[in-house]
Amino acid sequence: MAPCAACEHAPMHLPVLSKASSINASVLHGPRDLRLERRTIKEPDLGELQVAVKTTGICGSDVSYYNKFANGDLCACMPLSLGHESSGVVVAIGPQVSGFSIGDRVALEVGVACGQCTICHKGRYNLCKKMRFRSSAKSVPHYQGTLQERINHPAIWCHKLPDDISFDAAALLEPLSVGIHAVNRASPAPGSTALVLGAGTVGLLTAAMARQAGCTQVTITDVDQGRVDYAISKGFATHGYVVARPLHNSSSSSSIFPKSNSNSGSSTPSDGFATPSSTLSFRSSLDSAKALVADILALTQNPILDHDDEDIGVDVTFECTGKEVCMHTALYGTRPGGKVIMVGMGTPIQTLPLSVAHLREIDILGIFRYANTYATGIRMLCNQKGSGAGFTLPSLDDMVTHRFKGLENAKGAFELASRTMDDEGNLVLKVVIEA
User: For 417-431, what is each residue's pLDDT tens digit?
Assistant: First the structure.
């Protein structure tokens, strides 16, 4: 069940701010049309805190909105403040809120569920149909994101932070929560093997959570050499594989693989019947996926443990890109009886070789954001400096490769977040905007 910070008999705290004040906000009006505007913010309402936002990380969905004014099939229809990976400081407390004080440092869980439906009562509030999620165009009017100087936010979705957790690390509790939820859904047994497709922020943190859960071999793949090298050097994964970049430009999700050598676009076999070019392309993608899987699995293959050709593959594959071709790889790379976890949200309609999963009893599980993960994430960050045995979560602060100061520099932050390398040739991993 969702956490609750409101108390019927809690003492009323008077806000320290006036009834309404003016703040700066970064507002997107269309593709790459980002403006700094003044907005009016009221004092926090019943059950709310007013939080001065200190750090906001830029997510892939934010970049999509910035570039296209849409994310997948969700199109913005009004001005929208972006940002949902955030932390800050409590500056005012609304009526009937207990357990918080002015000056408390908090991480913001920005998905606000109704708390009343059957799904919420089951504790799976991330699936609530009435969910409002900051910086998403799904609800209308849009729930404005955190790239504002201050926001009013329900206290039950504000998580207090110890002093030794930085605002940057606290902001990354949001993508860390995705990794925690993905691994919770996978429930890998100790000693399992895992494959993570995609070495962005979510892929890295999912790999780390797989190791935390007891996976002894975690292989991560990406088309970017720098990200794979980072994953290995920082301990997010045990093995890495760099996938060859596409040899042609294509809007297809399968462009990670080279184009077929066929010149005609179709083939006429001896029986005289033509095979459509789309069928050839699909078969080529599947053949490429099989070849890629063979190369990836060769990295960790143990001649003693992996002697049975019928049981080759990893126990769990986490697909963190949302690309159709990566789902092909996931299905072929998972052993019979294993699991494929769909983490990344990308191509909404995909053509998949489902018989691979059907005949080998591979479970395909979807995840959508997260639920009941922030407390776990905070405890993990508190234990990062511990000397206990076992895997230790790599530093989230180190994942922040670029920092921009002030909302007036948000446009530059989004432009850089759209790239994998800056002008000096340095890796771009996580870009944050700090107050």
Answer: 999 999 999 999 999
